[in-house]
Amino acid sequence: MDIDEAMEHNKRGATFAKTGEFRRALVEFTHVIMLKPYDASAYYNRALVYRNLNDHEQTLSDLDHAIDLHPKYTLAFYQRGLTYYLLKEHRKAIKDFSTALSLKPDDVHALVGRSIAFIALEEFDPAIVNLNRAISQDAHLAGQIGAYASRGQAFAALKKYTQAISDMEEALAFNPKDVVLLNRLGAAYTDSGQPLLSLTYYERAISITPNAAFTYNNRGEAYRLLKRYWEAIMDFDHALAIDSSLAMVYYNRGLAYVSLKQPQQALTDYDRALELAPHLYNTYSDRASVYETLKMYHEAVNDYTLILERNPNDTLATFSRGTMYLYLDEPLKAIEDFDRLIKLYPGFACAYNNRGEAYLRLRDIERARVDCMQSWSLDDTHVDHGWMTLWIEMCLGRPSEEMAVARWLQGSASKALFEIEQALQIDANRWAGYFWKGMVCATLRRDEEAVNAFERSLIEHIPPILMAPLQWFEQDRPDFYLAYAAPLLKR
Q1: Quick check: is 459 in a domain?
Q2: Number of domains making up the chain
Q3: Separation CA 489–CA 465 (nearest Å)
Q4: The whole model's pTM is what?
Q5: Angle between helices 349-361 and 365-378 (to 10 degrees)
Q6: Which stretches of 175-314 are DSSP H helices?
Q7: Who's near 266: CB < 8 A, 6+ residues apart?
Q8: N or C, which terminus of the chain has less Cβ within 10 Å?
Q9: Does 310 map to a domain?
Q10: In this structure, what CATH number is given to the domain that contains residue 463?
Q11: Least confident of 50-64, 107-121, 455-469
């Protein structure tokens, strides 16, 4: 009698579970357990219902009971592994999937299950080994349960984009309306340097699910990489209209605004991104760069300091903070950063050059000369480093090759001025450009322009010691020297 009654409850439980009536299924399977407390399958069935109700604690409890009653219950080990995976206890999941495979070595489900746990742990090579086994066992079944999609994901993580794209295309044949898969395919094309090819997949995803914010974000990123910045911003706007809490979308839109030379809008987006996700560390570096553009050097220093608190050996942050200290006319702090950087990377030419500039601000021209010469010897492709070395030599009044160049420039002053004006159009914040514009204008007796240029070079923080070539005018143009050059040299 009890057996017949248990069978009826079991049938009703299975029917309710299939139709999604999980609370009613739970009641039926509980009746089965009351009638047959030693039936492992009854606990197994109720465990799956609990999982559908998101009660993972009870799911594990029932699966534990099932395994205690039936220690070789392969499906119970598989389902417990799956439950641990959902709880992000991936090592426990791998252990259970492995036990299932020891009981049934050709179990495709367990192979795929173990592989997705490895992927979650970013252990992509063993994931691929498991997926290869699953596909070789039964390619169709493996494809149906996501083996190709997962292997494609693992290949993409290893930057093996050709294999990733091939696997994801294969996976798409099993599930052509999988929006997540379409996005991953688009991302694989984008990450492999082919953002134009990604657009088709994002458009397909949008046609299937028009309100998926992540698809608009991904397509926006493809547009950004294609330098179609306004189209990118439109997609980022659309994503944020759907979900305004997505920090990464604000960050990506900020990158697009930077490319459009709209730093204030970029700063607003970076601020919002960091309010939502303070752990989004790449944003600090990009925001610091925007602060530099806006000449908000103290704020830039703060961001680089935050980066260095997390990673004291971050080369770019150390170099950039040292450079910000130069802009803030804090040469001693700049030297501390460049010293540390040179100790870590003795071949970093730019660190020597910038430390040389810090020494110039301290009027230690000999140490500046040594650093600038070292920078030039390490990397002679940086013309500005070589020029700084020559400039220092001119300030020291050393041999006359450099002075000869200066005299020659005086003979071609109009051409020299044209070149300097062109350079300043490219970068209007170069103190060197303004100083030498002043020198050339003074040679041409355009005194007002010359003085304005010298004043601008000081505004742009030229190390005063580098104004020593003004002494040349003491003999060449004593009137200009007494009226303008001498007072500038005394600053």
Answers
A1: yes
A2: 1
A3: 8
A4: 0.81
A5: 160
A6: 179-191, 195-208, 213-225, 229-242, 247-259, 263-276, 282-293, 297-310
A7: 254, 255, 257, 258, 286, 290
A8: N
A9: no
A10: 1.25.40
A11: 455-469
